[in-house]
Inverse folding.
């Protein structure tokens, strides 16, 4: 795997195969360490001012905040990393037309933070599990991750196992990670934040991608309204939902929501279809058959 890093795009299928086999993978040195250190510095003031989370899932002694694309110039390099997006497409595109950003979340586990409840992130969604992969998670450590400081704990191959509330028999792993590495795991993989038994906070960023037809954890259009997304690259605009998911989802006034980036938006626009080519052709054939048929008497 390591040898593939030089030709990142060609490796996405191989990393996806590892994810499908083990439920997780670690990609080493995906970004330069100084770049991650800069990102950590950029986010530091917000970590300091953010209150501890509330609730048994989010965890006491844990700080979390979202919307990183508007809070950090450096976040785009993580969210739109070509290899990561390539792997996410490998995992998710069998089940959707386009994927979307599910969340960006900065997490700081303070000394004394207890282990998080083991969970599968896909259980946010009520749909049937076992056949469809809903989500890919990418944990980018901002500080080193170890089993002692609360490094993410994963149950290998648990993505193939029984569902919610049932623990697999295999022992969990807690990979040692450094800034620049990326830990990826499926929405179906059982995992948890570990307990921080050291005197130093553990910081990381989770970026997750989900099927384009799901309701994402973070309400992207509110987090990044058009006046903010206007300054994004095309790829980021697409990832936060300013594109339609075919067939016909995510419209604005019956149009692709990217129309909101136009200088002037006409007031009386037609509704337009967003269909995949096979549907487009099938529906056009149906319509042309209607046009060819002579009107029936009395109709
Ligand atoms: O902090 C971690 O290592 C994992 C956090 C997590 O899995 C979650 O909040 O859903
Ligand atoms: Fe999680």
């Amino acid at each position: 795997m390591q040898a593939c890093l030089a030709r990142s795009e060609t490796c996405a299928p191989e990393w996806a195969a590892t994810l499908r086999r083990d439920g997780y993978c670690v990609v080493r040195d995906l970004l330069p360490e100084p770049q991650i250190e800069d990102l950590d510095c950029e986010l530091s003031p917000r970590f300091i001012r953010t209150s501890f989370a509330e609730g048994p899932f989010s965890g006491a002694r844990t700080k979390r905040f979202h919307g990183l694309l508007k809070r950090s110039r450096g976040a785009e390099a993580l969210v739109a990393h070509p290899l990561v997006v390539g792997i996410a497409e490998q995992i998710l595109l069998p089940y959707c037309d386009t994927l979307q950003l599910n969340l960006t979340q900065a997490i700081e586990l303070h000394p004394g933070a207890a282990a998080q409840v083991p969970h599968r992130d896909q259980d946010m969604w009520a749909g049937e599990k076992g056949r469809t992969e809903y989500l890919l998670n990418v944990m980018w450590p901002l500080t080193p991750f170890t089993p002692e400081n609360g490094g993410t704990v994963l149950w290998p191959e648990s993505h193939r196992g029984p569902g919610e509330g049932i623990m697999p028999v295999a022992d969990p792993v807690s990979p040692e990670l450094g800034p620049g590495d990326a830990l990826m795991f499926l929405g179906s993989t059982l995992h948890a934040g570990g307990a921080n038994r050291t005197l130093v906070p553990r910081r990381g960023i989770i970026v997750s991608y989900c099927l384009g037809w799901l309701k994402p954890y973070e309400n992207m259009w509110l987090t990044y309204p058009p006046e903010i997304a206007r300054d994004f690259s095309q790829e980021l605009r697409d990832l936060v939902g300013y594109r339609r998911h075919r067939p016909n989802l995510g419209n604005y006034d019956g149009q692709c929501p990217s129309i909101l980036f136009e200088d002037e938006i006409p007031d009386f626009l037609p509704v337009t279809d967003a269909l995949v080519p096979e549907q487009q052709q099938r529906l056009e054939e149906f319509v042309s058959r209607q046009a060819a048929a002579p009107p029936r008497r009395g109709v």
Q: What stands out?
A: The chain has nine helices and eight strands.
